[in-house]
Amino acid sequence: MNLLPPALEELIRTLGTLPGVGSRTAERYAYYLLRQDQRKSVAIAEALTSLHDGIAYCPKTFAIIGANEKVSPLYDDPKRDKKLVAVVAEPLDIIAIEKTGSFKGTYHVLGGLVSPIDNVTPEHLRIAELIQRIDEDEVTEIILATNASVEGESTALYIQQQIGDRDTKISRLARGLAIGVDLEYADQISLSRALEGRQQLL
User: Fold this and answer.
1) CA 29, CA 18: separation in Å to the nearest integer?
2) What is the CATH number of the domain that holds 43?
3) pLDDT in tens, the chain (202 residues)
4) Is 118 exposed, middle or buried (0-12, 13-18, 19+ CB in 10 A)?
5) Is the sign of the CA dihedral 171, 164, 138, 64 positive or negative?
6) Strands 81-88 and 55-57
């Protein structure tokens, strides 16, 4: 015997598939939407429906861009230093660094971190594209801005190995970032200090 209408059950089930959303949280979200004006639910549904059609990925940096854009505005900006590249795991990491106002280079989004337990290998990431970009743009410095975690460190080490003996300075975000803190959740002051105090690896 179903205690809830199928439509509500389906919404709870769907919300529960989101990361960090358990069954109880999914129920609260569903009941909240049910109690609100229907226009709010329609607005959310329309935003979700148009999400993928309105989004593209920069072919150079792999940052999220609008569907009508050809390349990331940050990469296209003549004021940005294309020879200085911050390597991040996810697109939202770019926003976190940009809020500091401390970085004037460009970015490269890997699309994740090496994680054997999740079956994510280096081949799943955009590391080959990064190496190609280093050569094409004659990059002089790579800042490995991956999270201070086992996965972040493993990924940084692999990238360092792939860069090899190229004449490219490699640095790592330094002080100000606690171990285990995801970049997108770090505060702006900590990120600014981490950028300023980055440590050269090669």
Assistant:
1) 12
2) 1.10.8.420
3) 567 889 999 999 999 999 999 999 999 999 999 999 999 999 999 999 999 999 999 999 999 999 999 999 999 999 999 999 999 999 999 998 998 888 999 999 999 999 888 898 999 999 999 999 999 999 999 999 988 778 888 899 899 999 988 999 999 876 555 555 566 656 565 566 566 656 565 5
4) exposed
5) negative
6) unpaired
Range of the domain at 13: 6-51
Token couple for 120: 């994510």
Tell me, letter by letter, the H, E, C secondary structure of the chain.
CCCCCHHHHHHHHHHCCCCCCCHHHHHHHHHHHHHCCHHHHHHHHHHHHHHCCCEEECCCCCCEEECCCCCCHHHHCCCCEEEEEEEECCHHHHHHHHCCCCCCEEEEECCCCCEHHHCECHHHCCHHHHHHHHHHCCCCEEEECCCCCHHHHHHHHHHHHHHCCCCCEEEECCCCCCCCCCHHHCCHHHHHHHHHCCEECC
CA R_g for the chain = 20
Domain total in the chain: 2
Q: Which residue has the tokens 């970049």?
A: 183
Residue pair 78/64 in contact by the 8 Å Cβ criterion: no
Whether 122 and 189 map to the same domain: the answer is yes
